[in-house]
Amino acid sequence: MPQVKEPARRGGEGHPPGRDGGGGGGGGGSEAFPVPTARLGLWLFLAVATVLFSALMSAYIIRMGYPDWQPLPEPGLLWVNTGLLLFASGALQRAVRAARRGDGRGVRQGLALGGGLGALFLLGQLAAWRELAALGYFVAQGPASSFFYLITALHGLHLVGGLVAWGRVTARARREEAARVRLAVELTALYWHFLLVVWLVLFGLMLVT
């Protein structure tokens, strides 16, 4: 995920929290070039990731049409993990709203909750792997098994990247005021929302097939 480096404020501050181009008022003319670049960089990354996951889902749908396709039993833990990721995304959106209000404490609380739930999601995915392995479903067991491990691993790697970005933003939020980290919080939350949507689509595809 692209990292966000926001420009330092100029002397005589007093710009409202909305100065970073996120929809607030005031100070719009003083916006520095790296801010829209960061947004554009993230959207380009999400576009590439969307193509990647779309190609993977297309291959999954095509491959399941072959006679050797044997569906896997979906671990019930995946439902719990889905709930964790849903609440993690909601917590990060709460941090975004707090940053727009200039509420530093709310930003830190939302980030802490979102990151913690995201980490639990990853641990839950690993536990789901162990559950399948205990039932005899390994990576090379068959095409359905291989696709399951590939899909969840690829999504998990993207979420690890989200945790790295989350860690950096959380560290900044501890030492800087909410207005200065607003853009970074917004972009981090956007990335996690994207991962939630991707997981919902992937999980739904696995359920119906």
Explain what the structure shows.
This protein is about 70% helix and about 0% strand. By secondary structure, the protein is mainly α. The protein has a domain at about 75-209: Cytochrome c oxidase, subunit III, four-helix bundle (Four Helix Bundle (Hemerythrin (Met), subunit A)). The longest helix has about 35 residues, at about 145-175.
Please give a handful of descriptors for the protein shown.
single chain; 209 residues; mainly alpha; Four Helix Bundle (Hemerythrin (Met), subunit A); 5 helices
Give a quick summary of the entry.
The chain has helices at residues 34-63, 77-101, 104-134, 143-175, 178-208. The chain has 209 residues and is mainly alpha-helical.
DSSP summary: helix tally: 5
Q: Could you say which overall geometry the principal axes of the C-alpha atoms support?
A: elongated
CATH topology of the domain at 77-208: Four Helix Bundle (Hemerythrin (Met), subunit A)
The description of the largest β-sheet is: none
Gap between N and C termini: 31 Å
Strand content: under 5%
Q: Helices and strands: which structural class?
A: mainly alpha
Poorly predicted parts:
7-33
Please give the radius of gyration in angstroms: 20 Å
CATH class identity of the domain at 77-208: Mainly Alpha
Number of DSSP E strands: 0
Family: Belongs to the cytochrome c oxidase subunit 3 family.
GO cellular component, one term: plasma membrane
Pfam family, one: COX3
Biased composition (Gly residues): 19-30
